[in-house]
Design a protein that fits this description.
- The protein is of the alpha/beta class and 152 residues long.
- It has a single domain, classed as Glutaredoxin, CATH 3.40.30.
- The protein is built from 5 helices and 6 strands, in the order αββαβαβαββα.
- Strands 1-4-3-2-5-6 form a 6-stranded mixed sheet, covered by helices on one side.
- Helix 1 packs across helix 3.
- This is Thiol-disulfide oxidoreductase ResA.
């Protein structure tokens, strides 16, 4: 079953013009925050083994859809094996960019303290703040934080 799930994940992620989920998939070396200038950017570090990460994906999908013109979400995966990330992604709608950081270079650069950790950047690429962890009960507060910064 795991093989089938992984293959399905590959089909979903790389279906060319019929990409159903991720906007684009990048390797860590290709990620550049400056490419999102002009939008509020929510950078989220996650891993397939992270239980709170599973709760955060529906939240990110909802807020990405609500604010698609003003907000860019970039979900950076830190799994050592890409297959683990792909298997995870099969279960979630991801209308945002996915970055694969298998070597942990971006996680080290951002000094990620745990999974998930999110960073919010303004339209000029300046850090607004950081949020560590994710609990469903905190999603309203997190949504308000993001929305307030979009409105500025």
């Amino acid at each position: 079953m795991k093989i089938v799930k992984q293959l399905l994940g590959v089909l979903i992620l790389f279906a060319g013009s019929h990409q159903l989920f991720a906007q684009q998939q990048l390797e860590a070396a290709d990620f550049d925050l400056a490419n999102y200038k002009g939008k509020i950017v929510y950078v989220d570090f996650w891993a397939s083994w992270c239980t709170p990460c599973r709760a955060s994906f529906p939240f990110m999908a909802d807020i990405a859809s609500e604010h698609k013109d003003d907000l860019a979400i970039v979900a950076i995966n830190v799994d050592e094996k890409r297959d683990d990330a792909v298997a995870f992604l099969v279960d979630y709608e991801t209308p945002f960019d996915i970055v694969f950081d298998h070597g942990g270079e971006l996680a080290a650069q951002y000094e990620v303290p745990g999974m998930p950790t999110s960073y919010l950047y303004d339209r000029e690429g300046q850090l607004i703040g950081k949020h560590v962890g994710f609990r469903k009960k905190d999603s309203d507060e997190l949504r308000q934080w993001i929305t307030e910064n979009i409105s500025r």
